[in-house]
Amino acid sequence: MPSPLAGPTNAPPILTLTRSLTIRPFRTFDAPSLAHHANDKEMWLNGPDIVPFPFTLTSAHSYIARASDSRNWACSGASWTGPALPSMYAIASRDVCIGSIEFCPGEDIRARTAKIGYWVGREYWGKGIMTEVVGTFVGWVWRSFPKFVRIEAEVHDFNVGSGRVLRKVGFEHEGTLKWGIWKDGRLAGLEIWGLVRGSG
């Protein structure tokens, strides 16, 4: 039986989209492309501080190791009968990593909720790629994990593009936590977007 600490494999994509796009487990050879696309100040501003800037090749290897570690997967038991899974996946164009999408199961009283996060490299902005990726990924979550009734996303209030993606795939803007985040030495709002099973 493989160790949960096993590194990236050649496992097939979990999803195949149009335009030669796939969502698949990260692989070791993704590191250079990941470092190229993630080393962007605006990308860092739109994300959590756990993702560093500058984002180096070493950062990329650490990111892939974290993405490939299934020990913290919380969807075992009734909701998932297959093998342990990572919760972070590569977004790939012609099998070259251009971004990432993440699925985080809720805990305790939020166990019926999952949270998603995502990004794609700047050169792929404005092409409809994230709308297709997020919409397809959300469908996969609903099909694969029937216990979840809600998916949510948190967006920095200055990240207009991400909110636009969520609205296009059916999420509703449920409110903004005023001064909910501290990023790059300033306070900003944190938007809460939600999608309930059967509504989108």
Could you walk me through the main structural features you see in this protein, from its secondary elements to its overall organization?
With 200 residues, this protein is α+β, with helices and mostly antiparallel strands. It has a domain at 15-149: Aminopeptidase (3-Layer(aba) Sandwich). The chain is 24% helix and 30% strand. It has helices at 31-38, 41-45, 57-67, 129-144, 160-168, and strands spanning 15-16, 21-24, 88-93, 96-105, 113-120, 150-156, 172-183, 186-196. Strands 1-2-3-4-5-6-8-7 form an 8-stranded mixed beta sheet, sandwiched between helices. Strand 5, helix 4 and strand 6 form a beta-alpha-beta unit. Helix 1 packs across helix 3. The N and C termini lie far apart (38 Å).
Tell me roughly what share of residues is in helical segments: 10-25%
CATH fold assignment of the domain at 15-149: Aminopeptidase
Helix-strand string: EEHHHEEEHEHEE
What is the number of beta strands?
A: 8
Please summarize what this structure is.
The protein has 200 residues and is an alpha+beta fold.
List the helices and strands and how they pair.
Blueprint: E1 15-16, E2 21-24, H1 31-38, H2 41-45, H3 57-67, E3 88-93, E4 96-105, E5 113-120, H4 129-144, E6 150-156, H5 160-168, E7 172-183, E8 186-196
Parallel strand pairs: 5-6
Antiparallel strand pairs: 1-2, 2-3, 3-4, 4-5, 6-8, 7-8
